[in-house]
Amino acid sequence: MDLSRVDLNLLVYLDVLLREQSVTRAASYLGITQPAMSNGLRRLRAMFDDPLLVRTSGGMSATERAMELQPLVREILAQVERAVQQTRPFAAHESQRVFRIMASDYAESTLMPRVLREIRQQAPNVTLDVLTPSDVSFLDVEQGRVDMAINRFDKIPQSFHQKTLWEDYFAVLMSGANPILQQPFTLDTYLGGNHIWVSKTGFGVGVGVNPKDVQRLGWVDEALGRLGRKRRISVFTRHYQVAMLLAEQHDVMATLPSRAAWLQQGNPQLVVKRPPFEIPPFELKMAWSPLLQHNPDHQWLRRLIAQVAQELDQEFLDYGRQFEPHGPGALNLSQG
């Protein structure tokens, strides 16, 4: 094929068509008419000798050839954009950009309030759109439609860039009136109480939990499973704030990341104790698309988030190491 006769605009059309998988939506995104978009698709089919998009019962679907082309076309367009755009610093005070960040409930509770405060101070006209894991997919992040994913990841695509923000341990949060506090806090004591399960860290729409499926219940129950033990879960929730609120009741307890428990340090009704068994620590990470790696706006956002995480981590360590495995067994959060 003579490359001098290739219309690069068709690659733009193809990129949007494969992302939207709809001629109508692709035309709307590009600001052209639907007949013009349909004509572009015909030319693309002739260029690649492949239908690219075919109609199925679920709508338009990409062919195998189209799926092979998608990452190649996206990278080509990203390189063209980098080549033609002038390198310019991010003007924080002038920017009106919208940053879209997928954050788990844990990250949203512990990290994002301080991130928002810093953004409001440094870039008052920037808008922050915080999405939940159920709102997005890895593909959304990979294609740059979501700027950042902040979560605890079991695995992420190898193409992603990532940075660890901090490491966290687990703590047990409960009411000071919980009757199990009248006896030594051993594993048997812990298992004799009623528990609040809280987790929702992965991408995609969540489904109901099967209490018998220990392998899918997460870190706490997997750690107990390795000991051949099992706790009695009375309530399942996907929100740390809800778990912390429920922990104020006198007969339940929540085992959750220590930085989430730290949020309740001024609550006189709650006590935090170190779990009476080993739960491996985990890392909170931020991950982003290679397409945004060299974007000045995105570089500014990454630096801001990393700096905020470092400051919070130091504040937490200064507050005390009571949540780490060798710290003291209990702390009344109201006493600071």
CATH top level of the largest domain? Alpha Beta
The helix-strand sequence is HHHEEHEHHEHEEEHEHEHEHEEHE
User: How many distinct beta strands?
Assistant: 13
Percent range for β-strand residues: 15-25%
Mean pLDDT across every amino acid position: 84
Low-confidence stretches: 202-207, 323-336
Protein described:
Helix content is 38%, strand content 20%. It is of the alpha/beta class and 336 residues long. The strands form three sheets. Strands 9-8-10-7-11-13 form a six-stranded mixed beta sheet. Strands 4-3-5-12-6 form a five-stranded mixed beta sheet. A hairpin with a 2-residue loop joins strand 1 (53-56) and strand 2. The longest helix has 24 residues, at 296-319. The chain is elongated.
Secondary-structure topology with pairs:
Blueprint: H1 8-20, H2 23-30, H3 34-48, E1 53-56, E2 59-62, H4 64-84, E3 98-103, H5 105-110, H6 112-122, E4 127-131, H7 138-142, E5 148-151, E6 161-168, E7 170-175, H8 187-192, E8 194-198, H9 219-226, E9 232-237, H10 240-246, E10 252-257, H11 258-262, E11 270-273, E12 282-288, H12 296-319, E13 330-332
Parallel strand pairs: 3-4, 3-5, 8-9, 8-10
Antiparallel strand pairs: 1-2, 5-12, 6-12, 7-10, 7-11, 11-13
Helix pairs in contact: 1-2, 1-3, 1-4, 2-3
